[in-house]
Amino acid sequence: xxxxxxxxxxxxxxxxxxxxxxxxxxxxxxxxxxxxxxxxxxxxxxxxxxxxxxxxxxxxxxxxxxxxxxxxxxxxxxxxxxxxxxxxxxxxxxxxxxxxxxxxxxxxxxxxxxxxxxxxxxxxxxxxxxxxxxxxxxxxxxxxxxxxxxxxxxxxxxxxxxxxxxxxxxxxxxxxxxxxxxxxxxxxxxxxxxxxxxxxxxxxxxxxxxxxxxxxxxxxxxxxxxxxxxxxxxxxxxxxxx
Length: 242
Description:
Elements: H1 2-11, E1 18-23, E2 25-26, E3 31-32, H2 35-45, E4 53-58, H3 73-77, E5 83-87, E6 97-100, H4 103-112, H5 124-137, H6 140-162, E7 174-178, H7 182-194, E8 200-202, E9 213-217, H8 224-239
Parallel strand pairs: 1-4, 4-5
Antiparallel strand pairs: 2-3, 5-6, 7-9, 8-9
Helix pairs in contact: 1-2, 6-8
């Protein structure tokens, strides 16, 4: 936030318009942008630019799984972006993406965006499937799925803590297990795959050296037995070093 404010100060008198662009959820670690603080800072400096400040948030990893009702980082932080970008291919399980903004911008993009005009939009069947997914999230069933997702995430985090594993806790279902060694991370990925557990190894240069990790992604279909099988596998992997 201090760096953002310093950059805004530098731009005063230099430009007419500022774009502040961020992810909502940072996919490597599952942490989120402090959108409430970002928008408050933008409001503080907006009058110093002739065309204001526009906030753009890509919340592809947030919408559908984050926030009390699954509305993403905006809901969690109690703040809204000027332009919200999302995907239909993660929580909603379909294909394509979307942009939410004011009427003027939407009308402009409908006429000019090459990924929207002509034959490029998603198919009617994909649109119908996406609508069904949105309806589910925005229903009693969706609330139950979100509650179960949060419970399974907490169960995994509690299990990792009980094993003495270093991880990054948080409310988002991305749970990073810090390994801090590239070769070790590769060994753990291979071991878990042999136990029919699919995880992503994140190593240098995607993350700095010493920050290597295994990224678990919990979903609403996972059961307590699924979580326990992961913890048992990690326990067995640790026993190899004993």
